[in-house]
Amino acid sequence: MFRAVLIANRGEIAIRVARACRELGVRTVGVYSEIDRDAPHVAAMDEAFLLGAAPASESYLAIDKVIDVARRAGVDAIHPGYGFLSENADFAQAVADAGLTFIGPPPEAIAAMGDKLSARAVADAAGVPVVPGTREPTDDPEEAIRFGDEYGYPVAVKAMFGGGGRGMKVVGSREEMRDALIAARRESQAAFGRGECYLERYLERPRHVEIQVLADLDGHTIYLGERDCSLQRRHQKLVEEAPAPGVTEAVRGAMGEAAVRVAKEMGYTNAGTCEFLLDEDGETFYFLEMNTRLQVEHPVTELVTGVDLAQAQLRIASGDGMGLTQQDVELRGHAIEARINAEEPAANFVPTPGTIGDLQVPLGPWVRFDTGVRAGYTVPRDYDSMIGKLIVWAPDRDGARARMSRALDELVIENVPTTVTFHRLAMTHPQFAAGEHATSSVEREWDLSSLEPQTTTPADEDEGTGAAGRELTVEVDGRRLKVRLFGDLPAGGGPVGAAGPTPRRRTGSSGSGGAAVSSEDLVAPMQGTVIEVSVEKGATVAEGDTLLVLEAMKMENAVKAHRGGVVTSLPVSAGEVVQPGAVLARIEDA
């Protein structure tokens, strides 16, 4: 087993991997950005090093900086978690070139699956069916329109190097194709550094079912059952469960064997997940993609199989093998995971970064809460909106739904609107209870009008020092150390200004600088960065037309006209940061 592992990630997954390492007696080294100085994942490590500024490109995505820390910290291996560099073949190769072990698949496998078109080619070679789509990337709207005319609408425009719903647009008609292709390329470029997109026939009401695989260095590959991840919004998962309701043993076996064939075709090792779309007949399935990393939803598989997947990753990467065979895998009971995101379900799931007040975690039998936050922690707008995962197990699905409902009622997260209100509704929704939901259900079939907007109170960002002093962090040669300061900091930070947490500058609303003053004002529904202004002052618009695009927590959000008329004021421009309620435009009667 490794002596020391660098965990190149943040949040709950960094803490999850650190716990696995600790149980195996492995020293952990963490990394963090300036805005994450006081994040819980940093405290969970044996030691931690500063990478750089808040933008991921300057910290968590900076390959050279991560490798430099690994060398200085004297680790044997690097675990990438999920997101960031976890599916970056160049990073995996850089780890190997540095003489370290990458806790994941070989770079060639990541490259094969990181490009979704080459992933489809691997599935073809393995004899696994794929959804009809283009074989080459395209940025030509006319070619995209021809594909839609041939295969019919809707069509999915998908980022070749994307994931998590980012860089994916569903196009309902040829008139929408041009704007959708441009938006998908832009969102993909911002999220993954690559903008190439391809086209795929969009199945109207499929289920999203995925197979967890493990493959060791000796060529043994197994699958650990399936997960259903069909409850989604914006093509991002909200609820996952294992096993998938209604999936027969025959279909489970066929999908599992298909996943193993794909893994073997590409010489895969370590943990991975093959994602499939299961058609409405409950039998026809298509390979979608393979995630060459540990999934967000891996805990539900752990609870129904008893296999610690994070430890399995460590054991496989160290050459220890899996320690189990396909015959050892037995599914017991039912597990459900709810992704708790900083989002407001009553406002179309807009991101809601902010400072958490009280935090009370549910307890009781077979209840697990994986999180990277704490009371008083500020959820930054710079990263993903997920702040925790609530997971439960019970002997059967109805029992798991009941246990999840109870746990959700006990979960308290004050001051930051979260998806908990949606999850409470979902657990008792007749369609979900019957296991008849699909990937399109939440946005097309469910009535969420009963969800009330959640209230928040302004958080005080200035903490008193108190008699016990204030604990601060400093970096000495990039290494994180803690100090305790008694008394007040000098004005402006003084000579120790760099030691404390980087203050979050309150950014006023752009342009008009205030809240709406009349019904003609279009206001920002969230804090975000203006990515694009789609109209000009003086333009005539109809209700529902897109006026601007805001990026918040790595997702683009179209801001549409709330009324028809003439745009008489447009006080914002691309690149500006706006606050909730900031006036973005004024639309007056024509």
Descriptive notes:
It is a single chain. By secondary structure, the protein is α+β, with helices and mostly antiparallel strands. The strands form 9 sheets. An 8-stranded antiparallel beta sheet has the order 13-12-9-10-11-14-21-19. A hairpin with a 2-residue loop joins strand 28 (546-552) and strand 29. Helix 4 runs antiparallel to helix 5, helix 5 (107-114) packs across helix 6 (116-125) and helix 7 (141-151) packs across helix 8 (174-192). The longest helix is centred in the N-terminal third of the chain and has 19 residues, at 174-192. It starts with a strand and ends with a strand. The relative contact order is 0.10.
Strand residue content: 25-35%
Structural class by secondary-structure content: alpha+beta
Q: What is the number of domains?
A: 5
Basic shape:
globular
Please name the CATH topology of the largest domain: D-amino Acid Aminotransferase, Chain A, domain 1
Outline the low-pLDDT stretches: 458-468, 493-513
The Rg value, from CA coordinates, equals 24 Å
CATH C-level category of the largest domain: Alpha Beta
Number of strands: 32
Number of helices: 15
Q: Architecture of the largest domain in CATH? A: 2-Layer Sandwich
Question: Which range best describes the helical content: under 10%, 10-25%, 25-40%, 40-55%, 55-70% or over 70%?
Answer: 25-40%
Task: Summarize the topology.
Elements: E1 4-7, H1 11-23, E2 27-33, H2 40-43, E3 47-52, H3 63-73, E4 77-79, H4 89-97, E5 101-102, H5 107-114, H6 116-125, H7 141-151, E6 155-163, E7 166-171, H8 174-192, E8 197-201, E9 207-215, E10 221-233, E11 236-242, H9 249-265, E12 270-278, E13 285-291, H10 298-305, H11 309-317, E14 334-341, E15 343-344, E16 350-351, E17 354-355, E18 359-360, E19 367-371, E20 378-379, E21 386-394, H12 397-410, E22 412-413, H13 420-428, H14 430-433, H15 441-444, E23 470-476, E24 479-485, E25 521-523, E26 528-533, E27 540-541, E28 546-552, E29 555-560, E30 565-569, E31 577-578, E32 583-588
Parallel strand pairs: 1-2, 1-4, 2-3, 4-5
Antiparallel strand pairs: 6-7, 6-8, 9-10, 9-12, 10-11, 11-14, 12-13, 14-21, 15-16, 17-20, 18-22, 19-21, 23-24, 25-32, 26-28, 26-31, 27-30, 28-29, 30-32
